[in-house]
Amino acid sequence: MAEETQKDxxxxxxxxxxxxxxxLRELFSTLVPPETLEIRDAFGNTHLVRSAIPARSQIxxxxxxxxxxxxxxxxxxxxxxxxxxxxxxxxxIKLCSNEVLFESICGAFEYAHPRAxxxxxxxxxxxxxEEEDADHVADLFPVEEIxxxxxxxxxxxxxxxxxxxxxxxxxxxxxxxx
Length: 178
Prior knowledge:
Strand content: 5-15%
Radius of gyration: 20 Å
Strand order of the largest sheet: 1-2
Number of helices: 9
Shape: elongated
Distance between the termini: 53 Å
Number of strands: 2
Largest sheet: 2 strands, antiparallel
Order of helices and strands: HHEEHHHHHHH
Helix content: 55-70%
């Protein structure tokens, strides 16, 4: 217990903006989203989607995910970290257990991949599922596919932001004069 108090009182060294950007850049340099992604629906069909999403769709995706900011996530804790498949699966289950969060993720997926959504609806109806029971992303795709369909979008967005920050912080004189 005394160790915890000492750790809490230790000052964390501040890093410069360049160091912070460098760390982010290093992180995102290893995360390269694929150009295309295969997403499988609950009916066994594979949908090939692009990881790049048009700007208008990106805005709609971000608006869907905007609801996340108001969510109480105090019940979503990770005691064993997210390392390994077990930790990642546990995190996904905990995140998707929150109804508001899951609805936002599903709405974002529908805007990000409308063709896959519509094709999966057609497959569901062809399999005998009533049309009104095939009108939600969660009725058509497994949780892991919904999440996987959005991950490349975030990686691309974060990578571009980090690259831009790197350009801005590495050339402060040019930015100040423009």
